[in-house]
What we know:
Shape: globular
Protein name: Trehalose-phosphatase
Mean pLDDT: 96
Structural class: alpha/beta
EC number: 3.1.3.12
Order of helices and strands: EHEHEEEHEEHEEHEHEEH
Number of strands: 12
Organism: Brevundimonas nasdae
Enzyme class: hydrolase
Radius of gyration: 17 Å
Low-confidence stretches: none
Keywords: Hydrolase
Number of helices: 7
Distance between the termini: 25 Å
Largest sheet: 8 strands, mixed
Strand order of the largest sheet: 5-4-3-2-1-10-11-12
Amino acid sequence: MLPTPPVVADGIALFLDMDGVLAPMAPTPDAVVPTARRTAALKAVEARLAGRVAIVSGRTLAEIDRISDHALVSGSGVHGLERRLKDGSIERKTPDAGVAQALDAFEEFAADRPGVIVEDKGVSVGLHYRQAPDEAGAAKGLAAELQAETGLTLQPGHMVLELKTPGADKGTAVTAFMQEVPFKGAVPVMLGDDLTDEYGFEAAAALGGYGVLVGPERETAARYRLDDVDAVLTWLEAVAKA
């Protein structure tokens, strides 16, 4: 059984996933909205850690900003494919040509399947079937076929299949941040809930830090665990006061 992470602030850098970690899972991507508690916790912990906090999510930077109410500057979106540095500058990968093909195919698939949602992120495209779980098999088959045809990276998530431009993940984002001020020299701590966050856990461990799994126990590279979003916010509030 994984223990609760220690409440320490000095010398650490925090990398936080959004959905399932800072915000509860919702039926549709746009159903997640800002909350006063989340915004306050992020601002407080960033101040305590002298800016060493970044959200590292599968969502776009624009969505990260919307949900976090612009609480932080540093952040990485679309599984490392876009990254905003502390000075506000943004690095973004050039979209692979296959993304447009996948978008067309996903939209055709969703057209006559109520509840299936297509999310265009520019450098990737997601197919959400949370509201149409019976379509899981067909969705996975289509995604695998497109991955083979296009060479895009297939990234499964919580009832979502994402085809993305290759060359980045949450681990590469954490590693890049750790080479820059104000993160450089700190101990990286990555909080995440699903398989996409394992890259972040592994990167944090490789750099002398650790991962914190959010949610039920499972096989993971994380060293610690928190139960849910409420437990994450409570821990962040404690770290801000440490």
